Amino acid sequence: MKLIPWECFDEIEAYTTCAYDDFHNIMDMSFHNENNQKVLKNRETLAKQLHTDLNHMVATFQQHTTNFKEVTYLDGGKGMYTRDDAFIGYDAMYTRDKHLWLWTFHADCCPVLLYCRDQGIVAAIHSGWKGTVGEIVKKVTQHLIQEEKCLPKHIYAYIGPSINQENFEAKDDIIDLVKQMSFDTSSFYIKKEDGAYLLNSKGLIKQQLLNLGVKEEHITVSPYCTIKDEDLFFSYRRDKSPHRNITLIQRK
Question: Domain residues for 52?
Answer without folding.
Answer: 3-164+221-251
